[in-house]
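Title: Comparing notes on inverse folding

I've been comparing how different people in this forum approach sequence design from structure. To keep things fair, I'm posting one structure and asking everyone to reply with a full sequence. Here's the target:
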């Protein structure tokens, strides 16, 4: 089954073509195209994602990305479009005029691609951003008479480690090796919007057993980065600075000159809290910089200590859940698992649990992408519960939860 997957939940416009076979017993994926267009530079001056700007950029990016993903640059035919179909497209894309214009000009000139379904992120995310992808998917569905599979973005992150990318060049065809997931499984989801531990009894059967009570861990990375005056996007900048700490502090004692709390480390549940940690960083920097600006080495020490605190609470809670629920697979997904120190910590720690297989996504699949959406759609299609792959009318759901 060949799936065209679309992801526009935040500030990445992404399109992939993923083929899946083997069903739920032995799913094997092949990534035929993997394209991500990041809007980071556009949102950077605002210090965060501006929903309406994201909407506009998605409108501009989707058709060019689709052409790349289908490898159909240049191969055109004479446009033919029935009046009835055109009317439908105009209705579906009524709120995306820029996209509609490109769509009508380009899509009817393409040969109908050999795909079986279109997958699209339904939520959670920014609704003005989600709608662009959804309406694009619906319009393509009408144009090519294909079913649409709405996908929960978080389910995409959960399965992102099951797809292996080989080769860094996103334009190249990517060969794939698939990993087998054994149940029960435990998933740690760590992104800009979510921090959750999820128990998976089977494909598509989720139970959230713990989550953040305030900020998501990625959000905390971003906010702390801003406090330290680092450029947007904060998470990667902060982890880079943290990794330089030991190098910068050669003339200083090996011990970190600052200590930050580990919020909720010993609470008897699997919940998290990161907003207090962020505030602690704010007070600490205010105290340390009251006389003079913070030297680079001290900033690096704070970044390092913050990262250590975040890693310690994430790992402690997760492995406590491992002990309680005895999963056979531990999956980690979401942008924060791009963090090298965090990856290393989990890779080391899991060795204490030989019965547990740790699955971490390849770097290009940690942050938002459409390959994970295509993989999730294949698994839904292959029979996960509630898999109604139809052309159902569905809407964007900014707060969609995993269940
Ligand atoms: O999954 P994602 O791309 O989007 C959401 O669904 O939220 O995650 C983005 C988050 C941001 O908060 C970003 O700062 C964080 O992932 N992030 C990182 C790193 N790379 C991205 N956080 C820590 N260290 C990193 N290297
Ligand atoms: Zn995400």
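Reply #1:
Here's my take.
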């Amino acid at each position: 089954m060949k799936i065209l997957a679309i992801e526009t939940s935040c500030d990445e416009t992404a399109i992939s073509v993923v083929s899946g076979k083997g069903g739920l017993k032995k799913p094997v994926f092949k990534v035929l195209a993997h394209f991500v267009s990041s809007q980071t530079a556009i949102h950077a001056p605002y210090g965060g994602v501006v929903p309406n700007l994201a909407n506009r950029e998605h409108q501009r990016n989707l058709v060019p990305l689709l052409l790349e993903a289908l490898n159909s640059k240049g191969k055109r035919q004479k446009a033919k479009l029935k009046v009835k179909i055109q009317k439908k497209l105009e209705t579906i894309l009524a709120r995306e005029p820029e996209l509609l214009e490109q769509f009508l000009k380009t899509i009817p000139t393409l040969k109908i691609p050999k795909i079986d379904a279109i997958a699209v992120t339904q939520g959670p995310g920014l609704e003005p951003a989600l709608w662009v992808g959804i309406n694009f998917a619906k319009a393509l569905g009408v144009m090519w008479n294909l079913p649409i599979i709405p996908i929960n973005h978080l389910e995409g992150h959960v399965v992102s480690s099951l797809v292996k990318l080989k080769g860094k060049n996103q334009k190249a065809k990517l060969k794939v090796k698939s990993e087998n997931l054994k149940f029960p499984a435990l998933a740690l989801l760590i992104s800009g919007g979510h921090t959750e531990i999820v128990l998976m009894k089977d494909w598509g059967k989720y139970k959230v057993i713990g989550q953040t009570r305030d900020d998501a861990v990625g959000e905390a990375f971003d906010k702390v980065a801003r406090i330290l005056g680092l450029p947007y996007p904060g998470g990667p900048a902060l982890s880079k600075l943290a990794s330089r700490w030991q190098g910068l502090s050669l003339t200083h004692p090996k011990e970190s000159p600052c200590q930050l709390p580990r919020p909720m480390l010993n609470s008897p549940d699997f919940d998290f809290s990161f907003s207090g940690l962020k505030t602690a960083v704010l007070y600490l920097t205010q105290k340390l910089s009251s006389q003079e600006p913070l030297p680079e080495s001290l900033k690096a020490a704070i970044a390092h200590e913050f990262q250590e605190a975040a890693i310690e609470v994430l790992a402690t809670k997760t492995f406590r859940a491992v002990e309680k629920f005895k999963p056979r697979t531990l999956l980690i997904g979401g942008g924060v698992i791009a963090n090298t120190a965090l990856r290393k910590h989990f890779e080391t720690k899991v060795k204490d649990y030989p019965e547990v297989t740790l699955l971490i996504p390849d770097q290009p699949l940690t942050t938002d992408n459409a390959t994970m959406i295509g993989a999730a759609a294949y698994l839904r299609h292959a029979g996960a519960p509630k898999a109604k792959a139809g052309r159902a009318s569905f809407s964007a759901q900014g707060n969609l939860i995993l269940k």
